[in-house]
Amino acid sequence: MKYSDKILNTPSSFIRNILKVTDAPDVISFAGGLPNPISFPIDELKQSINHAIDENGAKLFQYSTTEGYLPLRQYIADKYKTDFGLDFEPEDILITTGSQQALELISQVLLNKGEGVVIEEPGYLGAIQAFTLAEPVFYPVTLEEDGLNAEQLEETLSTNEHIKFIYTVPNFHNPTGITYSQEKREAIYEVLKKYDVALIEDDPYGELRWSGEKLPYIGAGRLENSVLLGSFSKIVTPGMRIGYIVTKNKELMGHINTAKQAMDLHTNIFSQMILHDYLASNDLKTHIGKIADLYQTQANTMLNAMAKYFPSTVNYTKPDGGMFIWVTLEEGTSALEFFNKAMEEKVAFVPGDPFYTNKTNVNTLRLNYTNSSTEMIEEGIKRLGKILYALSNEKQTV
Amino acid sequence: MKYSDKILNTPSSFIRNILKVTDAPDVISFAGGLPNPISFPIDELKQSINHAIDENGAKLFQYSTTEGYLPLRQYIADKYKTDFGLDFEPEDILITTGSQQALELISQVLLNKGEGVVIEEPGYLGAIQAFTLAEPVFYPVTLEEDGLNAEQLEETLSTNEHIKFIYTVPNFHNPTGITYSQEKREAIYEVLKKYDVALIEDDPYGELRWSGEKLPYIGAGRLENSVLLGSFSKIVTPGMRIGYIVTKNKELMGHINTAKQAMDLHTNIFSQMILHDYLASNDLKTHIGKIADLYQTQANTMLNAMAKYFPSTVNYTKPDGGMFIWVTLEEGTSALEFFNKAMEEKVAFVPGDPFYTNKTNVNTLRLNYTNSSTEMIEEGIKRLGKILYALSNEKQTV
To answer: Which co-factors does it depend on (chains A, B) (predicted)?
Structure first.
């Protein structure tokens, strides 16, 4: 058998592959991007399951429409109105099989082989993987502490005509945990309004904020080719695989609908109706507030442990929300080598390599704090610190 | 915005588009391919939902593995052992978001732009749609009453080196309702074993048999590049979107796994665990027997009504199972014109056109009998017969 060039070029997910190793009960894993299971509203969902079946019967179990369950799309539209004053209608929203499918839909609809995608450097590896199936050329633009470098973005767009879209995670970015500043959002908007490109704002973590005020989107509601991606994976449950695409560009939405038909006909309607019942019967804001409190405690535990156990030469981000901390080791230290030593000590994380489209053997890495107890976080960081001191010339003081 | 060539060339599903029109309560629809909702085991599924949550808790709601829930894959492997004596292991099985996603996965993994796919003529329109996103060249091979024309298949394969796979629906074919004979299966196997191509056997309807004996697969268990597709949509519920791919080719399965990661990470684990609980707690054979009995009654009602109300110049298939009847009108009669007249009389079906990759304005059409009451079937066929008599020169005798 000969396989397609696109699949031979698509990286298998480093994270998904190591999850099997890191699943072992004696491994402390900061590798995945898993929500804390104690945050799942299981009792409320169970009530909604029984209620939704009693109310709707066979409709939960039959084929359904490609665009998704109308009351769920209405709920999402109303939520953007309340939270951001954005004027979306249900027809601007299509329900996807998780946000991951949204990435695949967009790249299939927009990209011919060899056309361009601007991606954050470092950027979300699931997006790199999804886009790669459409065989694009990646244009990495440096992600700074407050967002994409706007000058570099303009330079990239002005010198490469075949770029189709820019992919961003503006809030509590994966993998770095950073959030785009208000100024950076404006600067990027000013650049993008001059070009015929789509802006993808992928926002699965935005509501998980425990510090600071939420900011308006870069393009949503004002750029013609704005595409917003959302998900219930981090605020209700990832197991049901329910995400969504929002765009007011009707032609684009029509093509996305056709691609969705070809890919899986429609998203699981059983789960859509249960999720809608849950959202209609519970106060989501209160629930999200509890998750944010939990993650703040976990993040602070990790940051305090890093301050205590890591050499002073190690730098890292201090997120105001979300699920990740991004660590930069001393210049020349290999994150992959660090990973191998850490696994010997039964601690896992994701070395930076898969978050870049054109760099290897980097000195950066991603830590997740949401799926470990505070005791495990303290112990895991302690072990990592010990290895880091051994790798550096600094003398450990703790 | 400029869109990709592949999406501009992908047809939007005729069926999905007309479903909106045919959903009106006063329309008698033979258009969709929907199971009869009275066949959904709602009470048993409700029990399984509560039981699965009580047993597994947060696991139903967390991220899960790309290949799918192990006990469900084990159940599927055991079922093939029992039903066909086929020796599959869970590692040969990957759970997909419905069979539709399996079609998309296979075409992404195997096809470069311009490479070949052999498709039945007429063939399943959802497959044509999914494959089109990978920009192949289609090689239609005539589907006869007992399966693909084997000589034409051999001629096609021997003269076109870039063909990657053959797509078939061997049991109660969509759209025609025909089943491949034992002799045809052998003849096709003898052809395929000489070529380095994959054989896709898509079998969502095979268990819905009310007449005759089940037959062994063409390639499963004996062709190296055999791929079998299955689904729970027609025998339990389509709303949960659970299908699967079976292949013993490990390299192919590895690539499919990578593509699945890129497309949606994994199939809804909440639904997988509930479905598995249902399958482990109930006798599926008994349940399927009831569905087959129901569909036999509906099919016979339609066939008897067609014998009574249709002109004698109209030909049609007489299925031994499944969900569809294929109608061939008098030479020169346009199924699309017939469709427009039928919609005026509030009866819907699918004109043959979307089931062909290179023909339009054909004289064939698909009727579905599973989602209408026997009264509605009788009334709908009566109305269609009246139009057909008006379109033909024959005099109506009923």
So the answer is: pyridoxal 5'-phosphate
Q: Contacts of residue B128 in chain A, CB cutoff 8 Å?
A: none
Choose the CATH number for A42-281 among 3.40.710.10, 1.10.3720.10, 3.40.50.300, 3.40.640.10.
Answer: 3.40.640.10
CATH number of B62-281: 3.40.640.10
B48 touches chain A (CB under 8 A): no
How far is residue A362's CA from residue B147's CA, in Å, rounded to a whole number?
Answer: 56
From the list A62, A237, A261, which residue is nearest B61 (CB)?
A: A237
Contacts of A125 in chain B (CB under 8 A): none
Tens digit of pLDDT for each residue in A219-256? 999 999 999 999 999 999 999 999 999 999 999 999 99
- pLDDT tens digits for range B307-347: 999 999 999 999 999 999 999 999 999 999 999 999 999 99
The third-level CATH classification (topology) of the domain covering B5-40+285-391 is: Aspartate Aminotransferase, domain 1 (3.90.1150)
- B219 burial (CB, 10 Å; 0-12 / 13-18 / 19+) is buried
CA angle, B234 then B238 then B242, to 5°: 100
Contacts of B243 in chain A (CB under 8 A): none
How far apart are the CA of A241 and the nearest CA of chain B, in angstroms? 6
Q: For residue A34, list chain B residues with Cβ-Cβ distance below 8 A.
A: 62-63
Residue B63, chain A, CB below 8 Å: the answer is yes
Phi, then psi, of A227 in degrees rounded to 5: -130, 125
Same-fold call for B5-40+285-391 versus B62-281 = no
Least confident range of A3-17, A123-137, A346-360: A3-17
Instruction: Scan residues 18-37 of A and list those with Cβ closer than 8 Å to B.
Output: 19-20, 32, 34-35, 37
| Segments making up each domain of chain A, as ranges | 5-40+285-391, 42-281
| Contact at CB, B53 and A38, closer than 8 angstroms | no
